[in-house]
Amino acid sequence: MGYRLFIFLFLSGCLFSCHRVQLHVEKGISFELAKWRKQHLDSVSYDLAFYIPDSLDIPVTGSETIRFMMKSGRGDLQLDFKAAPDAITFFSANGRVVPVKQQNGHIIIPSGVLKRGMNEIEISFRSPDQSLNRNKEYMYTLFVPERASTAFPCFDQPDLKARFRLRLAIPADWKAVANGQMETDKVSGQFRDISFSETELLATYLFAFSAGKYQAITRNLNGHRYTLYHREPDTLKVAKNLDAIFNMVELSISSIEKYTGMNMPFCKYDFVAVPSFQYGGMEHPGAIFFNSSRLFLEGTPTREELLNRANLIAHETAHMWFGDLVTMPWFDEVWLKEVFANFIADKVVSPLFPDLDQHLLFLMAHYYQAYSVDRTEGTHPIGQHLDNLKNAGSLYGPIIYHKAPVVMNMLEEKIGNPALRTGLQKYLRKYAFGNAGWNELINILDTDGTLHKWAEVWVNESGRPQLKASFSDGRTVIGQSDKTGKGRFWPQTLDVAWPVGDSVARKRVALNSPFTVPENIPAPKENQWVYLNADGSGYGFIGMDKATLKYFCSNVSRLKDDLFRAAVWTDLYENMMEGQLPVAGFTWAIIKNLPDERNQLIRERVLLYLQNAFLFQASGPVRDSLDMSVEHLVWSELDNHENNRNSLMNAAISICYSPSSVSRLYEVWQKENYRQYKLTTKQLKELAYNLALHMPAKAGQILDVQEKRIVGEDERRQFSFIRQSLDPDPEKRHAFFRSLLKAENREHEPWVNEALYYLNHPDRTPEELGYIRPGLEVLGEIQATGDIFFPQSWLDNLLKGHNSKAAADSVRSFLNDHPDYPADLKMKILKSADFLLRNND
Questions:
Q1: Which range, of 55-59, 160-164, 453-457, 622-626, averages the lowest pLDDT?
Q2: At 232, which helix (H) or strand (E)?
Q3: Is the pLDDT of residue 22 over 60?
Q4: Where is 165: in which H helix or E strand?
Q5: What is the mean pLDDT of residues 510-521?
Q6: 189-228 pLDDT, tens per residue?
Q7: Nearest to residue 266, comparing CAs of 253, 285, 289?
Q8: What is the pLDDT of residues 56-81, one digit of tens each?
Q9: pLDDT confidence band for 796 (50 / 70 / 90)
Q10: Other C-beta atoms within 10 Å of 569: how many?
Q11: Is the dihedral of CA 412, 417, 419, 423 positive or negative?
Q12: How many CB atoms lie within 10 A of CB 83?
């Protein structure tokens, strides 16, 4: 054998062996599989057709033609489809009918039927219901992060973008919306046949459609055409909210176009208000889905509700550029699209509330949520490792949605607004309709080589620093420590404040070492205070000495600056959660200071802190000791603050349940109003739930009356489901909980979350301790079958109502019995159980 022939055969064998390694078929989409397919496939397109019957008993069926360019390589090809073996009814490759081989959620296409160049696969199939979210009168898809392959065969990874054509056969009285423009709409008998134009390049998780008995409303604003699809039966509520919704959409588009220097990159902007949608929203281009209740606000909305709606619309709109136009290559960088959606949304929304300081809005939007994870043992870095897309759901949460914007805000401060904006514009132009991640962005922004090192601790390290002032030789020393003992250091700048006579002095201090002795900040005199975070921009646990805690607990309302007060409230709450301030002491601080709080947004946040502390952090004896004082505060505020009755009524419904308050709330529920304040439908439902909980003898009557008050069928079905968690018969409640352990009974995740909350309500425990262990046992299945936020919300509602040692022991026992439990799920348990475990150490 000649040497050259030997080398050729050897290399050919290596190539073949390499491809044979790729034939290892595992569940989900591994990084190695995705990498191989990205190297060898290109120019992917899908022509899809779905038949959606009006009966839930009849399966959805579909057909598709997949075209792709095979650039090189030998070996079989894996196509993703998580369905039963008999779900495929026809399969051909390049005109040849091929026997179907399925394994671990993949269709194995033999190499012998593939060719270099353009390939064409034709498939007919029954579509599993998992991600089709079918209801009696509507359905919608939800394919993030790798759920498209639960509905149709595809290459389900974010960096194999494709063009989609779609055709739907739906009941004749339904409407449909999808990513593309509607091309044809024909009714024949009992069915409607709709086809949609080819889309721009999309990742599979962004392909979407919805169909149902929707009403469609179209507005033309500043040259843009917007269509809203909804099922809200309350026409007055719709009319009241429409202008605000459409104006916020238009403002978002125009503001982001101006910031990015790039027109909206997709062919249209349709959006759907989905009843009981699992998320606040989902950014499918051309077919954005929103939670209906987040758009159609009731009564006189609170300031926070208005802010949240504005942020939600701006956030999902920003994704048209950040995530949809430029998409992360792999879901380990999902945080990048979320951080920019939030970062840009903050810039869009702030001008809408000119009476509120932009920095105050930012503080209130992000720090409380970020700390809810970052203070716990269940925290994780912003940037995370991901070996398989089946685990991508565990990446989502407050760290990527709320800590990441804080870090991006620091980045903007570090390099300047013009430099960041210019860099983002370059990033969008360079990678438009493609994929790019953090390295591609930081390479554009890092002009002097310093950003990579700065980003390492803020992006790739978990947790938060411990920041505290100490005093030595008449001077203030600012110390930063790492409670994990790893010796990490987080560079940042703090706004330090201290009293000087009747005024307050402030100084910005850059932290560049674990101990900083700033000039001209003296040690406080006896009983005086010093505070490290007056502008609220410092990130970490801001520890307070006893004098500072004592002063602020009594006098926080006397601080003149809104941002200063909001920062103090944030850090007082964190000192309570970290065990540095007793729950009772924090609650008394609210009782003393809330009546004098002037800023409505801060009032609403402090009321949230009160509900959390009183309901979930206070032990039984502490709640008993505070009960009458807390209820007196809430009722007094309700009587004295007409402009804030919405949030105050929410607090009353949540926490006021002494015998006198129960009687008072029962009368409010019967009349449906309180002193000319008309309760919203949501408040009446929640009041009925809580009255049923605290008045078991009348529970059935209360729930029956409330159910008859409900107008819409979707809302009535939700109420009927949740009321099972409030049955006065413990055995019926236990049976209902056991039913939730089965995936088929968890179809509507928001309903399950609310029901689980009432099953584990603090006023039920310790009666329901028996739910903890089974609820933890099913967590792995919940991650596999539920949507991305469901595992954490399941845990939160399972555990937050408990604060006893027995409950803590039940969690510890589960963890001890599962030493090899998946790390991502263990971290979620530690996050949800943090205060429970910490308080029963």
A1: 453-457
A2: none
A3: no
A4: strand 162-171
A5: 93
A6: 999 999 999 999 999 999 999 999 999 999 999 989 999 9
A7: 285
A8: 999 999 999 999 999 876 789 999 99
A9: very high
A10: 26
A11: positive
A12: 20
Asked if residue 85 lies in contact with residue 94, where contact means CB atoms within 8 angstroms, the answer is no
> What are the backbone dihedrals phi and psi of residue 18, each rounded to the nearest 5 degrees, phi first?
-60, -45
Query: For the residues of 69-124, what is the DSSP string, one character each?
Result: EE-S--S-EEEE--S-GGGEEEEEETTEE----EETTEEEE-GGG--SEEEEEEEE
pLDDT score for 812: 97
Q: Please determine, for residue 667, whether its predicted confidence score (pLDDT) is greater than 80.
A: yes
HSE-up (13 A, CA, CB side) for residue 688 = 28
Check residue 355 and give its pLDDT.
86
User: What is the b/e burial string over 182-211, where b = at least 16 CB atoms within 10 angstroms of the residue's CB?
Assistant: beeeeeeeebbbbbbbbbbbbbbbbbbbbb
C-alpha to C-alpha distances, 354 to 300, 358, 360, 600, 622, nearest whole angstrom: 19, 8, 11, 14, 40
Closest CA relative to residue 366, chosen from 539, 616, 579, 612: 539
**Which residue type is seen at 693?**
L
DSSP state of 446: -
Please provide the DSSP assignment of 577-622 as one string: HTTSS-HHHHHHHHHHHGGG---HHHHHHHHHHHHIIIIIIS-HHH
Task: Report which of 501, 490, 565 is spatially closest to residue 533, judged by C-alpha positions.
Answer: 565
Q: Which residue is listed with tokens 């700065």?
A: 454
Kindly list the distances between the CA atom of residue 513 and the CA atoms of 110, 375, 378, 489, in Å, as whole numbers in the listed order: 60, 22, 27, 7
Give the whole-angstrom CA distance, residue 38 versus residue 70.
10
Whose tokens are 């550029």? That residue is: 321
Q: What are phi and psi of 743, to 5 degrees?
A: -60, -35
What DSSP string runs through 690-722? HHHHH-GGGHHHHHHHHHHH---HHHHHHHHHH
Side-chain-facing half-sphere of 183: CA atoms under 13 Å: 11
Over range 606-617, report the average pLDDT. 97
Per-residue pLDDT reduced to its tens digit, 341-352: 999 999 999 988
Closest CA to 533 of 485, 560, 498, 487: 498
Q: Measuring CA to CA, how many Å separate 411 from each of 320, 339, 764? A: 22, 12, 46
pLDDT of 442: 92
pTM: 0.93
- 313's CB contacts (< 8 A; 6+ apart) are 245, 248, 249, 252, 281, 290, 295
As a whole number, mean pLDDT of residues 168-188 equals: 97
Which of 839, 754, 828, 832 is closest to 803 using CA atoms?
A: 839
pLDDT per residue as tens digits for the range 120-147: 999 999 999 999 999 999 999 999 999 9
The values of phi and psi at residue 610, to 5°, are -60, -45
Average pLDDT over residues 793-798: 98
- Contact assessment for residue 499 and residue 528, using Cβ atoms and an 8 Å cutoff: yes
Residue appearing with tokens 């914007």? 405
- The one-letter code for the residue type at 328 is M
Identify whether the C-beta of residue 109 lies closer than 8 Å to the C-beta of residue 153: no
What one-letter code names the amino acid at 464? Answer: R
Helices 645-655, 600-611: axis angle to 10 degrees equals 0
Cβ(813)–Cβ(775) below 8 Å = no
Token representation of residue 109: 């296409």
428, 430, 436, 438: CA torsion to nearest 10: -70
**Residue 452 pLDDT class (50, 70, 90 cuts):** confident
Residues in the chain: 841
C-alpha–C-alpha distance, residues 745 and 774, integer Å: 15
pLDDT, tens only, 570-602: 999 999 999 999 999 999 999 999 999 999 999
What is residue 257's three-state secondary structure? helix
Pull the structure tokens for residue 287: 């077919």
782 pairs with which residues across the strands?
none
Question: Omega before 766 cis (within 30°)?
Answer: yes
Pairing mode, strands 41-51 and 162-171: parallel
The DSSP secondary-structure symbol of 532 reads S
